[in-house]
Amino acid sequence: MTNGSVLSQARATIDHVPRWDDAPMVGRADELAHLLAHVDRAAAGRASTVLLSGDAGVGKTRLLDELTARAAERGVRVLTGHCVDLGDVGLPYLPFVDLLRPVAADPQLAPAAAANPVLAGLLAGRPGGAPPVQTATESRDLSRPLPNRAAPQPVDDGRLPLFESVAALICELSSAGPLLVVLEDVHWADRSSRDLLRYLLARLVDEPVAVVASYRADDLHRRHPLRPLLAELVRLPGVERLELSPLGDAEVGALVRRLAAAAGSLPDSTVEDVVARAEGNAFYAEELLAAGLHGEALPMGLTDVLLARVEQRSPAAQQVLRVAAVAGRRVRHELVAAVGGLDDADLETALAEAVHHHLLVVSDDGRYRFRHALLREAVLADLLPGERVRLHGSIAAYLAGAPGAENAAERAHHARESNDLPGAFSASLEAAAAASGVGAPAEQLQHLEAALALWSAVPDAAERAGRDQAALLMETAAAARTVGELHRAVALLRSALQVLGPDGDPVERARVHYTLSQAMVRVEDVTGAYRESAAAMALVPADPPSKARTWAAATHARMSYSVGALEEAEAAADEALAAADALGFDGAWSDIAVTQVRARPGADPVAVRARLDEALVRARRSGNVDVEMRVLYNLATVAFEAGQIAEALEWTRRGTRRARQIGAEWSYYPAELRHLQVTALYMTGDWDESLAEADLLARVPEMSAHVRADGLLVLVGRGDPSARERIDWARGLIPRLSAHILLDLVTAGSEIDLAAWEGEPQKAVDAALAAYRRLRQEWDDDHLGVLRLAGTALAPVGDAAVTARRTGDEAAVENWTRAGQELLEVALAAVEVYERNYGATMGVEALAWQARVVAEAARVRGEPAVELWREAVEAFGFGHVYEEARSRWRLAEALLATGDRAGAATEAGAAHAVAVRLGATPLRTALEGLIRRGRLDVGGVRVVDVSAVMTPREAEVLRLLAQGRTNRQIGAELYISEKTASVHVSNILAKLGANGRTEAVAIAAQRGLLPV
């Protein structure tokens, strides 16, 4: 079976997802622009050629499809020819037969050439049965004279008339307009076609013809006949190579999501798996997606396609590939030599064959690696089970005898796959220790969990490990916490309690209990955390003081404060602080100091800062990184809550930098520091950096998903279409992470803001109230996050109320007033709950949102409330650049409503400058609408008159629509028929993109097309 037929068979097996070549093109904008530039050059009268290379499935055909479509839109005639893999029985000139089919179908396209008997066989689709060739002179007489061109390479005299006839035909076609000639898969071209291509590219120099010839780079082994031709062609003027590299991960991810859209949303884990395995190859991604939807490891069709290339190689080369596949993605020459069973000469020959045919490539470090990871997967899948186990065993034995060749992780893998479980257990522990030594906690966790999985299967596991199972579980839980896998840490610690049992060592059990408490509070299980810390306190006595008791008391104080058991909290805190001082436990002292500072709101800021500074010094001295990160986070938070955003950013940067140094970027406090940093950058107007920090890593632990969701702040603010996709992603996580308050708040806030900008007030209200109800279930004492939700949702409610008043819709006015009142009451209840528990200690951001809520509520009631909006502007002046600008926008509206046009212009101009700088398109659009509607004199903002959008009659109709007039009333007032009025209304709806009269009035108001 040929590669082509296997590929066809593979494609035929998939019918449940859209084809990638049917979807909008992804990630090839630069390459497409480059090719179109060559088309433009040809249109200007200069022939141009691109030799397009890329691996099979990387997207050459999809790019060429887009190119031909774009070229046709520009009035360029397109001729396309395809080469087919027919082995040694290929038909000569087959791609040119395909190319010239349009001329055969319509001889009038090139009447002189169509009458040429030399071309009769080609045009009739019989390249092997062409009539006897004529002399060169006779051939030239059949078409217009060819201009002088670069001298073509010599060809067989018997073929020269045919070659010149084809060149003349192309010239005749191009005389009517520019021509794009596309030849696909020229790596399969027969010799005659290659010679004809060489001749044409040499002859076509001053013609309006662009030629694009594609070929598979991975098929060009060293003796492939196309290689010397390519080297010759690139020396011709106007000919260049363009390599189509694999797509980037983000582009493959976008492609996969588009392909899967018809089947519903995919879990992020499935998308990420497809992206990682496809390695930028669009066809592989499509096949893997299909497999993912069916639950297959690797699609059989794709396996056949990949193995077809392997099966063409010699037995020795196939043996080398099998050894390399089992060894891993990269393999050293020495390992292949030791395990492959080939003598030196045969090994060298086999490796050369595999490399020259692009199955293996040589890395910079001298190792061999597979051209594509899926090729290795296919070879592995083709191995018999016994052969695979034998090879793994041989490799493990080689690595054990030469430990310098590979690390313990490799040895553990091969030992496990060869069923040497004791060897795999020991090697996994060695690999975990090595990962810990180089600051790689994620890898450490992976190896520790592998060792835990083997514990029961290794009789002398405790002796080999040098510790008991509970201690190994504790170590693994610590690694899980470091990488942000908090739920996994909780599960591991609970397993440690089960292993210890009720009769286990009390000190060890206490240590597990308070460690479990610390983990549980980070997944928002405060009640459970309090229960575990209390259990730890009950297991170890206070006298004599001990490390276990000190940490148990420090942890219990924190959890007691969290559940409101203040007397119990103070007693535990005093005990822990005294014991930590007496025993010199600086880590515990720092931890309890932070707990006390945060549990006592309203304390003197100078004293708080001094306490935290001392805690930081002690934490660093103790070497307890987790406590150090907690202190840094609280230093940043204290500054943030005081409105000192620049100082907060200094602390977040110090914290995230320190976390990177120790490889713990996604443990709890480093993740919270990054969340605070993204938010602070958003506030200060550094939106590009904010978004970059949110998207620093595409893959983050689920408990740190709010950091990626933070990017929504910028995406929604800029009106980026990708915001909806990210909201859907975050919304899909929330049911699994029901207690993840920050993720819920960020997502809900962005959802509300997006609904506000899209003019969907009810959607905004529903989202705000639903989030409020969820927050009440999770947090009893602090609902201040609701202030932002309510304040943002009140904005579109106010817009809807304004529109309803303008159109005289009293029922709608009552409805939106009632919705606004409900949102106001929710916000006031949140403030009441907070003040009941913490007093009047709200931070500056919460106070600013409270001012916004009050001003928006007045707007819903129809009050200009100029002073309330001034208060909102001043409240956000602490450093929240965007929200200050949004408040200025509303202040400008209020000033305009009271007749203060100069004041309105000043505020609108200041807000507009910020919107422009931030790239905040929705806000900028709203401001420019206000400026047009109010005819405000704002420098630098062009005022577009309604006449630029509407005809004079449509402007009159729109004015009456805004007053709530029916078509009959409009007709009567303007002395036109009701039918004519209806036509004008329909035109207005179409121009505004509105679905109804009310929506049209709202859009027109937003765009400044209505009078004040």
Automatic annotation (TrEMBL):
One of its GO terms (cellular component) is cytoplasm. It holds the Pfam family AAA_16. InterPro entries: AAA_16, P-loop_NTPase, Sig_transdc_resp-reg_C-effctor, TPR-like_helical_dom_sf, Tscrpt_reg_LuxR_C, WH-like_DNA-bd_sf. GO terms for biological process: regulation of DNA-templated transcription. CDD domains: LuxR_C_like (cd06170). GO terms for molecular function: adenylate cyclase activity; ATP binding; DNA binding. The keyword Nucleotide-binding applies. Signal peptide: none annotated. The keyword 4Fe-4S does not apply. Residues 943-1008 form the HTH luxR-type domain. Keywords: ATP-binding, Nucleotide-binding. Residues 129-154 are annotated as: Disordered. This is Regulatory protein, luxR family. It comes from Blastococcus haudaquaticus.
